[in-house]
Write a structure and sequence with these properties.
alpha/beta, SAM-dependent_MTases_sf, Rossmann fold, 7-stranded mixed sheet, 248 residues, transferase
Length: 248
């Protein structure tokens, strides 16, 4: 049970697997007015940075679920490093369809809405894990500018223009689903740079150490095209944000 290997190679040195920086996560935690003892479920928790730093800074507790063995191990190591392993726990499991044994104050999926077929399905999954009146956190890309053609969407690395919405339509969609948007924090271009550009050094070093690996050609191809794709398309067309929702 794992994600495609290209991701665990290219993002093996990442603390966060999305365009949020440590400062953005701190801003989000402060904006949500986290209190000690708040219980959080994080589906697609990656290397655990959100849960671990919020446990350190705000005294929250919680559970992270991720399909990647590598990222789950890194999350556990991060919890030990920050001295919060008694408060946050990480499970190697498929987050798709995950229903916990308890209900949470906050249920989050920050950048992995593919686990339930998109935004609506992920919100429905998170709601099943949530206490009445609890907060759902959804991290999702949006179009800063809508690609004029499907070819441009493909150049951005997605299958279709319809894969994402512009920001006003995304916020309106939350409303249509019956949720109040009570907070949001948006990534900035520098955060995108850190998320994308950090992969390039990791891939280059990996290729130097693993020239005969069966994945080497795929990594070489990605390293060749990724910088151009980022500065030409992704950086200009994509935004990304985390949205806090409470059901009406």
């Amino acid at each position: 049970m794992d994600i495609p290997r290209i991701f665990t190679i290219s993002e093996s040195e990442h603390r966060t697997h999305n365009p949020f920086t440590a400062e953005k996560y701190a801003t989000l935690g402060h904006a949500l007015r986290m209190k000690p003892g708040t219980r959080i479920l994080d589906l697609g928790s990656g290397s655990g940075e959100m849960l671990c730093t919020w446990a350190r800074d705000y005294g929250v507790t919680g559970t992270g679920v991720d399909i990647s063995p590598l990222f789950t191990t890194q999350a556990k190591q991060r919890a030990e490093e920050l001295g919060v392993s008694e408060y946050v726990h990480f499970i190697h499991n498929d987050a798709a369809g995950y229903i916990g044994e308890e209900k949470y104050d906050v249920a989050a999926c920050v950048g992995a809405t593919w686990i339930a077929g998109g935004v609506a399905g992920t919100i429905d999954l998170l709601a099943k894990n949530l206490k009445p009146g609890g907060i759902i956190l959804i991290g999702e890309p949006y179009w800063r500018q809508i690609p004029a053609t499907e070819a441009i969407a493909h150049a951005c690395g997605v299958s279709s223009v319809a894969d994402f919405r512009p920001l006003p339509e995304l916020v309106a969609f939350f409303d249509q689903l019956g949720y109040d948007v009570v907070e949001m924090v948006l990534a900035d271009p520098q955060g995108w740079d850190r998320y994308e550009a950090a992969k390039w050094m990791t891939m280059r070093r990996w290729l130097e150490e693993n020239p005969d690996d069966e994945c080497a050609q795929e990594v070489r191809t990605e390293l060749t095209v990724a910088p151009k794709r980022h500065v030409t398309w992704t950086r200009e067309y994509f935004g990304w944000g985390v949205f806090a929702l409470i059901a009406r």
